[in-house]
Amino acid sequence: MPFLGTTLNTVGLLFLTHAVYSAHEHTATFTHAALPLDVTFELLVSIAMLSAGIVLSSPDLKPIQWSQWAAKIERGGRHGEGKWTREGEELLSEGDPYAFLGLDKGIGGKGEGRRGFWDVRGKRKEYAEWAREGAK
């Protein structure tokens, strides 16, 4: 299939180049005339050929296995790189592409959630506890 896809891409690209050149020449020659049907048809056929060629020459898709990926991340846990940010937070790595969001520390968790975001519910709770204690 890769050979057929490459062939379709090559022929489609040639047709597309010719259609674009024909459209340019037509608009340069005739200022207020619509594009001829043969140029429009050639353009549509070239786009269809390119689309089919791209699909046929692309590699097979791999199945998504989120449960295995998530289990691997949970078992491994986060570990530090030994580098620190200006705010004093340690950079964590492990292969989790969403680790920088800090979503595990959000609602119901520990900490303030994502860096740079203020936990309004947590601050209200802290203020309520402070007010109950008599503002000591």
UniProtKB/TrEMBL annotation:
Superkingdom, according to UniProt?
Eukaryota
Main subcellular location: membrane
Q: Does the keyword Translocase apply?
A: no
Cell compartments where the protein resides: Endomembrane system
GO cellular component term of the entry, any: EMC complex
Q: Name one Pfam family in it.
A: MMgT
Give the signal peptide range: 1-22
One biological process term from GO is: protein folding in endoplasmic reticulum
- InterPro entries recorded: EMC_subunit, MMgT
Which membrane topology describes this protein?
A: Multi-pass membrane protein
Keyword list, A-Z = Membrane, Signal, Transmembrane, Transmembrane helix
Family, similarity comment = Belongs to the membrane magnesium transporter (TC 1.A.67) family.
Q: Which protein are we looking at?
A: Magnesium transporter
User: From which source organism is this entry?
Assistant: Massariosphaeria phaeospora
